[in-house]
Amino acid sequence: xxxxxxxxxxxxxxxxxxxxxxxxxxxxxxxxxxxxxxxxxxxxxxxxxxxxxxxxxxxxxxxxxxxxxxxxxxxxxxxxxxxxxxxxxxxxxxxxxxxxxxxxxxxxxxxxxxxxxxxxxxxxxxxxxxxxxxxxxxxxxxxxxxxxxxxxxxxxxxxxxxxxxxxxxxxxxxxxxxxxxxxxxxxxxxxxxxxxxxxxxxxxxxxxxxxxxxxxxxxxxxxxxxxxxxxxxxxxxxxxxxxxxxxxxxxxxxxxxxxxxx
Amino acid sequence: xxxxxxxxxxxxxxxxxxxxxxxxxxxxxxxxxxxxxxxxxxxxxxxxxxxxxxxxxxxxxxxxxxxxxxxxxxxxxxxxxxxxxxxxxxxxxxxxxxxxxxxxxxxxxxxxxxxxxxxxxxxxxxxxxxxxxxxxxxxxxxxxxxxxxxxxxxxxxxxxxxxxxxxxxxxxxxxxxxxxxxxxxxxxxxxxxxxxxxxxxxxxxxxxxxxxxxxxxxxxxxxxxxxxxxxxxxxxxxxxxxxxxxxxxxxxxxxxxxxxxxxxxxxxxxxxxxxxxxxxxxxxxxxxxxxxxxxxxxxxxxxxxxxxxxxxxxxxxxxxxxxxxxxxxxxxxxxxxxxxxxxxxxxxxxxxxxxxxxxxxxxxxxxxxxxxxxxxxxxxxxxxxxxxxxxxxxxxxxxxxxxxxxxxxxxxxxxxxxxxxxxxxxxxxxxxxxxxxxxxxxxxxxxxxxxxxxxxxxxxxxxxxxxxxxxxxxxxxxxxxxxxxxxxxxxxxxxxxxxxxxxxxxxxxxxxxxxxxxxxxxxxxxxxxxxxxxxxxxxxxxxxxxxxxxxxxxxxxxxxxxxxxxxxxxxxxxxxxxxxxxxxxxxxxxxxxxxxxxxxxxxxxxxxxxxxxxxxxxxxxxxxxxxxxxxxxxxxxx
Lengths: 262, 638
Description:
By secondary structure, chain A is α+β, with helices and mostly antiparallel strands. Chain A has helices spanning about 35-45, 120-125, 145-155, 165-170, 175-185, 195-210, 220-225, 230-250, and strands at about 5-10, 20-25, 70, 75, 95-100, 110, 115.
């Protein structure tokens, strides 16, 4: 197979970028999309030219590194997969394919197709955890958790932090990402003590990082490689509303982001 | 110079070694912890759990990873589960049994004291993970669920669907996030360690490259912890992530840390077979598939009929035939070799004959498509996506793939290497799995090292060692900085015609053929003579475009390949020296008439720890393995 690739190339965050066209020859339908790009890069390197920078690591859909907008859709045309799980048999021979980076104000471009997603880490640092010390935990079976509840928590927890939800949203909102973490921990008894402070702190961090608001278009769910449901955004809104009520009842809640709920 | 390997294993009864050792260790007072700095390199299960726990204890931690976020470390890809001797199923499990299964699974090439300690703390690991909010699979009544894995006869594996590694890593990452927020841990993502700074015999810092700006900088500390994972990617094709590499541990080796048992490399039996030369990675199909799938090949040589046209009588269910007691759930090393054996006979299936069938027709017929789909649906979907084939109606084709490395930097009972102040945890050390790791044990070891072992032992070192101040201007730090700069310059200066990947691929196929699933004297000698030639070609003919002072992925990669080209030689030296077959290391000269490995306890019941010498072959030091509590037996699963 053979393809024409229009790839976004940009040297750094403050430089102008542009599309450059490359030909991919001798592509096998059994190649993954990233293996096809490897092939193009090998050709460039052998000629002493700089290869196209793109992120990848596990190449099995779990690390969340890969991040390409393919023909306008984050992670490409198929649902429920990451870019590294996309295979060339999905494309007609001779197709012209456009490849862009995640585009969002909160994700500045590092180089070519690589963006800086550390904003997501900072949102996590604001409260996406249970503050328990190592050691001294009670027996794993001491608190029983119903199977359905555990499964729903797992649905939310399966987020890989790739940022496709942000890239797909016209507001570049990170609501699905934040919703997944807030819901995961709100559903489990271990997350309850910090439930109130967590949602407030994470929402504030999300706004601070320059992510937009949710416009209820559900593009995020459509491109999520782990098929995380927008129902969790409803949970997030409910948790946030609840926190507002609970916090106003607590005298010093705003001073302590991890205050215990009542 | 390494004079003697002192494992520092406490004396006395096995059951109380760790308790007594912890009591005899010195402590650092809370006020003094604040003044002590710890460098942690790597943020997988071991690194993230260690960095967060040390931060929580009050140390000032500086943590490094080459990924854009600590959450992307390769621990995230572990599928199956994590073992613990909880005996929640009341099926006869105990600390003693987990200990024995692990020692036997490792073919009696690991330390009793280390393995026993790991089994002892396994339950605490689960409790800690639950407390962090990890959504383990549950039964309807709300209790934790378990499943079984290869090489054992109890159900002790805790899991989160097929994403256990992801959930455990995100748990450790969240604990790390908390400590970053508290200011106890300074996180430095996209920063790669390129050398170790040793001052007066003590590890006191590292030299790193900022992968975005290309800036090379010196970071000093009172103690350094490496949690940088394994080196399966030396084979080019493996189940590891593309970024996983040997550079950190290899550079530490060149500064004097002994490297132990590098030839113990685990080849996982069930991966999707390689298809073409462009392939960049092998995808694992979870070991759990062997609970229901049956492995077979045609009895007849060169039988190219479709699998469904080959009748029962014409099929060879080779694992069930050779190992009736464990059948398709034989341990990984044994299953992999059996697959290789039938393929070598010419009975392999698929293109190149590199494959065997993993057949679910029986279980589909007995229990229905729905049951199979519920149990393995995501794996069948993954298989379909990659191969375009439907495993519900035709058997899967699978082939072994490099997966995990039991070898690593030598550490004593305190997880300290032969360089005082250099601690090594997780897959990066050699400690607990002997010559073969059992499924679902790597997660246990990574978290055990990071949450529960290192935080104790590092305190004793810091409380007792004399640690004068070391700054960036110290001569040794400058020297290490120069080494890194010179190497970068050398890589960028080589304006040849071939890509780093082409050398990596060549090295990988050399190792796979001569130091892979089975090894022999002739092959190893050939590999040992070919590697230096390949290395010379690399430095003469490699091309690395771009500059050093910018984001340059090709430069990062070429540096890692250059280290593989040196490290591969050490791996072959070790395989050559170990003239016995044990666990994953199979020397063709040492086998029984029916192809079973012959271990040689009289000559090789030791850890082989190699010391670096510049411009010469490495020196071998032996740590004898004493078995006081179990009797090494022939490891039989027949």
